[in-house]
Amino acid sequence: MEHTLLAPGGRALTYLRLSVTDLCNLRCRYCMPPEGVTKLSHSDILTYEEALRLLRVASSLGMDKLRFTGGEPLVRRGLTSFVKRVNDEGLFSQMRLTTNGVLLAPLAADLKAGGVQGLNISIDALEPDVYAEMVGMGGESGRKLFRQAWGGFMAALEYGFTTKLNCVPIRGRNDSQILPLARLALEYPVTVRFIEHMPIGPDGIWKESAFISASELKETIEKEFGPLTWLEPEYPSAPARLFKPRGAPGAIGFISALSRHFCADCNRLRLTADGRLKPCLLTEREFDLRGPLRHGTDDEELRNLFLEAAGRKPISHQSAETVQTDCRRQMSRIGG
Ligand code: SAM
Ligand code: SF4
C-alpha cells in the first residue's frame, strides 16, 4: 500500500504503538512514582472495539507495523483475544509487544498463535535483589517477580519470538548488571538493548551524574568482550545501533535517545490507552481521538485527525532540560 501518512521532512509514518493500559504490576523507579499514578477511570480507556476501529483507520493510511505496549500490556484482561482479532483482520504486516515479562510465560503460546512475532522484554538486572530494587518491590516479592520475568524471557525464546531484552542502566543503581546482561547475547539469540535513561518519569530520578551514555556503555562492554562489530540497521528508522560480539548468537544494541537524536528517521505515532494520538514521545502535544470517536465521527474525520497529528510531528526534540519540561506524561502513560 502506498504510504499516505507523511510527517514534516517527508517521513512516512508506518509504525503505530498502541498502549492498551496505563496500569502496571511493577513500579520501575525511572518510570513510575512508588505510590503509582492516579489511574485512569475504566471509561477513560478505549474499549477493544474502539481501539480496533482506530487500528483499521491507521491501517487504511498505510500504517503496517503495530506494537502493543502500556503500562504493562499483559495486565489488561482479554489482550490475547484482542491481538488475535487484530491479526485475523490482517491489518498489519508485523505485530510486536513490549512487556516486563512477569506475566508472559503463561500467555506466550496464545500471543504466538495470535500473530505476535516479536517481543521486547524489559529486565533491568539479573541479580534478583538489584532487580527488586529497580522495579520498586523490595524483598521476596521483588525476587519472585524477577523469577517470573526470567521465565517470561525463557518462554519467549522457547516459542521462537524475535526477542529483544531492554535495560535502562542507571549509575549507582543497576550499573553492576551491564556486563551480566550483555553476556546474555553470547548465550542466547537475543538482542540485548541498553536504553539511555530519558528525563521523563518521576521527578528527581533523572540526574546527569547517574546518566550512562551509549558511548560509555559500549566502551565498558568492549573492554570485557573485545571489539564489537557494527551491524547494518534492519531499517533506517531502527532506534538502536546494533553490534555483534565475536561468535555470539545474539547482538547488543544501544538506544541513545538523548545523546544522538534519531528524529529524522522516526516513523512512529503513539496512541495512548485513553485514545490520544501523540506525534512524538518527547513532546506534550496530543490529539484526542476518543472524544470524536464516541461522538459518532465517521472514519474520514478520524483519518483527518491522523493526518493532522502526522503533520504536527516535530522535526526534532531538544535537550534533556526541554524534554523534562515539555513532557509531563510518564512513559507508562504514553506507551514507551
Ligand atoms: N511495561 C512494559 C515494559 O516495561 O516493557 C512496556 C511499557 S514501558 C513504558 C516501555 C519501555 O520504556 C521499557 O523498556 C522501559 O524500560 C522504558 N522506559 C520507561 N521509562 C523510561 C525512561 N525514563 N527512560 C528510558 N526508558 C524508559
Ligand atoms: Fe511498568 Fe514498564 Fe514502567 Fe516498569 S517500565 S513501571 S514495567 S510500564
Could you outline the blueprint of secondary structure elements for this entry?
Layout: E1 6-7, E2 11-12, E3 15-19, H1 48-60, E4 65-69, H2 79-88, E5 94-99, H3 108-113, E6 118-122, H4 128-134, H5 139-158, E7 162-167, H6 178-187, E8 191-195, H7 214-225, E9 229-231, E10 240-244, E11 251-255, E12 268-271, E13 276-278, E14 287-288, H8 290-294, H9 299-311, H10 320-326, H11 331-334
Helix pairs in contact: 1-9, 4-5
The structure holds S-adenosylmethionine (SAM) and iron/sulfur cluster.
S-adenosylmethionine binds at residues 24, 30-31, 69-70, 72, 98-100, 122, 166, 168, 195, 197-198, 200-201, 331-332, 336.
Main attributes?
binds S-adenosylmethionine; two-stranded antiparallel sheet; alpha/beta; binds iron/sulfur cluster; 336 residues
- Low-confidence regions: none
Ligand species? S-adenosylmethionine, iron/sulfur cluster
Question: Which geometry do the CA atoms define?
Answer: globular
> Helical percent range?
25-40%
Average pLDDT confidence is 91
SSE pattern, N- to C-terminal = EEEHEHEHEHHEHEHEEEEEEHHHH
Annotation field: number of helices: 11
DSSP strand tally = 14
Strand order, biggest sheet? 9-10-11-8-7-6-5-4-3-12-13-14
Characterize the biggest β-sheet. 12 strands, mixed
Distance between the termini: 27 Å
User: Based on helices, strands and strand pairing, what is the structural class?
Assistant: alpha/beta
Q: Tell me the Rg in angstroms.
A: 19 Å
Strand content: 15-25%
